[in-house]
Amino acid sequence: VGVYTFPHRTFQEYLAACYLTDHDYPELVADLARGDANRWREVALLAAAKAARGTAVAIWSLVDALCYRAPDDPAYAAADAWGAHLAGQALLETANLASVSERNQPKLARVQNGLVHALRSSSLPALERAGAGRSLAKLGDPRPDVLTVDGMAFCYVPAGPFTMGEGKELHLCDLNYGYWMGRYPVTNAQFGAFVAAGGYKEAGYWPEAEVAGYWRQGEFKRRWDERWRRGPAAYGEPFTLPNHPVVGVTWYEALAFVRWLSGHARQWLPAGWAVRLPSEAEWEKAARGGEEIVTSPVIGRLGAGLAAAPEVVRQANLEPRRTYPWGEEITPERANYDDTGIAATSGVGCFPLGASRYGVQELSGNVWEWTRSLWGSDYQKPSYGYPYVATDGRENLAVGSSDLRIIRGDSYYVNKTLVRCARRFRYFPLNWNFNLGFRVVVSP
Fold first, then answer.
1. N or C: less crowded end of the chain, CB within 10 Å?
2. In angstroms, what CA-CA distances link 192 with 152, 156, 405?
3. Element (H, E) at 181
C-alpha cells in the first residue's frame, strides 16, 4: 500500500474482473453490479467477456444471475432493473445473439421484459433509460405498440375548449370533436412498414409532392437531394434504431404515411374518420389539456378499434394553461432535452413522467413533429412563404412547397424554454432533419 498505484481505473476494473471470474462466479460479481452499478458495471462487463472466452455458457450464467426476477414479481426492485440493464449490455457485447438456444430463450425474454419495465418506471435515471432503450432495440423490443402499426397506441382527447398560445397570443380555442392522438411519435419500425408495403411507389399517397415536382414513378426527392430515393434519410445509430422516432422525413413523406395507414386501418376506424397529421390545435390541446380533463387516460390500440366517443370521466381543470404537458416545472427525468444529456433521439416510452393529462408521451423534447397546419402568426390566417398564395384556411394540403408548415414539440438538443406546450416553429415541407419526425391523429 502506498508503493504501487494504477495509472487508470480500468486496470483496477480489469484485475477485479479477472479475480471475480475465478471466485464465486457469477453470483458475486452479479450481486456487486446489481447493488452499485456505477462502481461495478465495467467489472461485470469485463468479467462476462473474460468468462465467455472459456465457455459460451458463461455469459448466460451471468445474465441469469443479473436478471433472475420477472417485473411482475412482488419482490422486484431497483436492483432488478439495474440487473436487466447490465444483462442487456453484457449480451450485446459478448453473446452470440444470432444463435440463442431454446434453453436460453427464456433468459433473453426476461431481460427484454426487464428492459421494458425499466423504461416505464423511474428505477433508472434518464440517461440509463435511454441506454436501456438502445439495448432493447438491438435485443428485440417486444412492444407491439412501438414496433407495429396495428398495435399503435392512441390516447383519447375529448371535445371542448382549451387555452392556446401564450402572452399576447393567448386565446381560447374550441375543438368541438374528440379525437385520438398517437401516444408516441411514429417509430422507424412503423415507418418501415410503410416503406416495405411499397408506400413510396403508390401515386395516390403523393399528389401534392407530384404536383410540386418532387415525386415521380415511385421515387421521392427532398430539397437539396442529389438523387431520388424510396425511404427516409439515414443518420446511423441511434437515430435508425427500430424503437426510436423516425427522423429525416419531410412533410410530404409524413403525409404519404398517414394516407397509407388510413387505408390500412380502414376496417378498424369509425365511419367518417381517418388517420391524419394532427393540426396545430389538436397537437397543443393534447399537450396542455382542456378546460376540463379526464381523471384517467383512455388508451386504445389501432388494431383493436378506436371508438368515436369512448366513455371518459371528467373533473374541473384548475390548470388550464400548463407550461409543460405535466405541469409547470421541468427536470431531465421528464423529457429528452439538452439538460438530460442524451444528445440524440431516445427510444419512445423512456419518459413516462412526461405524459400529458391525456396520457400522450414525449410531446416535449425528443423530436420536432410535423403538423398539417400552415404557418400563421395569429393562429387564424396562414402567412404564406414564397411566393404568396391566396387560399382559405390553415389546413389546406394543396398549397405549394414554398409555404411553411407548423412543427411542434422541439427536440433533444434544445433548452427547457423551447420545449413548452405553446412553443411553435415553421419549416418548409421539403425540408428534413435528424431531429424532425411526426406523430399521427385519428379524427373525424
1. N
2. 14, 25, 24
3. strand 179-182
**Burial of residue 8 (number of CB atoms within 10 Å: 0-12, 13-18, 19+):** exposed
- Radius of gyration in angstroms for the set of CA atoms belonging to the chain, rounded to a whole number: 24
Which residues are CB-contacts of 11 (< 8 A; sequence separation ≥ 6)? none
Distance CA 45, CA 411 (A): 32
Cell of 275: 388517420
Residues whose CB is less than 8 angstroms from the CB of residue 99 and which lie 6 or more positions away in sequence, other chains included: none
Query: In this structure, what are the phi and psi dihedrals at residue 233, rounded to the nearest 5 degrees?
Result: -65, 145
- Between CA 435 and CA 22 the distance in angstroms is 47
C-alpha cell at 307: 371508438
Please report the DSSP string for 46-96 in residue order. HHHHHHHHH-THHHHHHHHHHS-S-TTSTT--HHHHHHHHHHHHHHHHHS-
Q: Mind listing the pLDDT tens digit for each residue in 10-41?
A: 888 999 999 999 999 999 999 999 999 999 99
Burial class of residue 206, CB neighbours in 10 A (0-12, 13-18, 19+): buried
Tens-place pLDDT, residues 331-356: 999 999 999 999 999 999 999 999 99
Q: Do the Cβ atoms of 21 and 51 come closer than 8 Å? A: yes
Give the residue from 244, 261, 182 showing the smallest Cα distance to 232. Answer: 244
The residue among 286 and 2 whose pLDDT is bigger is 286
Contact between 286 and 184 under an 8 Å Cβ cutoff? The reply is no
**pLDDT for 413-438, tens place per residue?**
999 999 999 999 999 999 999 999 99
On whether the CB atoms of residues 190 and 148 are closer than 8 A, the answer is yes
DSSP, collapsed to helix, strand or coil, labels residue 138 as: helix
Task: Tell me if the pTM is above 0.85.
Answer: yes
Dist. CA 364–CA 87, nearest whole Å = 30
| DSSP output for 383-441 | ---SS----SSS--S-S-TTS-EEEES--TTS-GGGSSTT-EEEE-TT---TTEEE--E
Cβ proximity of 179 and 444 under 8 Å:
yes
CA separation for the pair 53, 95 (Å, rounded) = 11
